[in-house]
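Two folds, back to back.
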Amino acid sequence: QVGGFAWENCGDRTDPVVLQSLSVAPDPISIPGSLRVSAAVSSSKAMASPLKAVLVVEKALGDLWIQLPCIDELGSCTYDDVCTILDNLIPPGTTCPEPLLTYGIPCHCPFKAGSYSLPASDFVLPDVELPAWMTNGNYRVRVAVSSSGEELACVKLAFSLQSQ
């Protein structure tokens, strides 16, 4: 499916963290704009530091998919410890931002095992200066999260971006 939002789990059945549902509107996603997201995730084991995330981001150019490089922490990047990034964004000890707070979704490591669900919630996508190669178009993203060499989760997303 080219153009249009889609997702799938790409890990094997033993991955402890599984995306159960995910919906995003509008489609295509508009920047700046409002994004409505609902999601459900289940985890059969706690996720603790260091949590490594490997992103592969591809953009459609005609019939070709081109892997985008990692530039300024955007694109096909490897983040060696997501926990530290979260701590930098949201200082430990402060409350998690809405709507996470309302729905009891943690924003710091370790993440306990269990089920987490986010009912349809609106997020504002600010008018950020995205590099030209990250604007309008169709994208595919693969995110693999691991800890100490063990894969915890793998999710593939496809979406379209439209910037004003």
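---
second:
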Amino acid sequence: LCHAHVHLDKCFLLDQCDDLVTGDFAEALKVTAKAKRTFLSNPTDVHARGRRLITQSVECGVTAMRAHVEVDETVAMTCLDTGLRLKREYSSVCDIQVAVFAQDPFFSNEEDSEPGVNLSLFRDASLRDGVGAVGSAPYVEPSIPQAKCNITYVLDIAHARGLHADFHLDYNLDPASEPLIWFLLDELRARIAEGRWHAGMQVCVGHATRLALFSGDEWARFRREVEEHALPIMLVGLPPSDLYMMGRGAQPAQRGTLNILRLAERGVRAAMAVNNVGNAFTPQGPLDPLALCPLGVAVFQNGTKDACQTLVEAVTVNARTAIGVPGPRSLMPAIGGPADFVLLHDNDSMYSAALDPSYSRTTIKGGVVVAKRYTSRWLLHEESTHRSPVI
């Protein structure tokens, strides 16, 4: 199992936020920003929450993850320092790829022609040893032209440092909005042609809910551009947060997340990830990537064996490909491949694992058992209720 997209610094933050009233995205940004103001003075808490996320993830069977840590004027390098420390501390049980992430905009106002201090901090953070990726959320910029500048800045830095790139992109369900995925594909294609992109560096696109509105022709165009130009890009759907946030107030009601199964039918490989855990953006659900499979069966309305295999691939081999970490590229073990596995004690097939994942598990990393998780069972038999109590 692999976390292709998880926020290490904002996990388990809900009890430190103001009570949710509307539950919408604007409120989540507001209450999280307020809670973030304590990070700088309380790095011990950031470390403790991150340690909890990693420990529980490994117990689920996660042996690789991309961990987003934010860098901005509010938190400075606190989250990055913590992420790099946790990467070292857990190196024997999980491959943690630290991604420097800009949640806040580079431009303060729509009138600004030059970015502000957040970009300078972002550049400085990308130089730190141990960083594996850089990413941003272009949709937070004041304007579309500035969002496109955001994308070019991140790609420039990724190339200069030899890092993977990650974008929280097209996070809306507005058919009138410009899908910035086309701008990103054009940029990546041009950079590869001009020798301004390193082989092996992957571009990951999370959320991309706007693409859920794509027509068949638009998906055919997407696949054609990726395949013809061998673009190292993969989409990552984030169902727990996408379904919770998207489509609020729409008439008729909408819920949007990338349909992994429909994409597979169109020849587009994609991954799934949990994104946030226990915060205002995603207050519900477990951090187990495998739990996305039964959710996917319901949301995408397909419980066939082929569909379940596609869902399992989305949280394993496709997730690893999306973030560019070494590992198996098939669910079938191969001689000489990495011995990273999760044993599901109560499942006897991949089909049952996708439909009803076992809680009891053993995690193996590099051929070594690194975690075990068991459920304890006890049942009061009916006949025992008729016995006289022993005093």
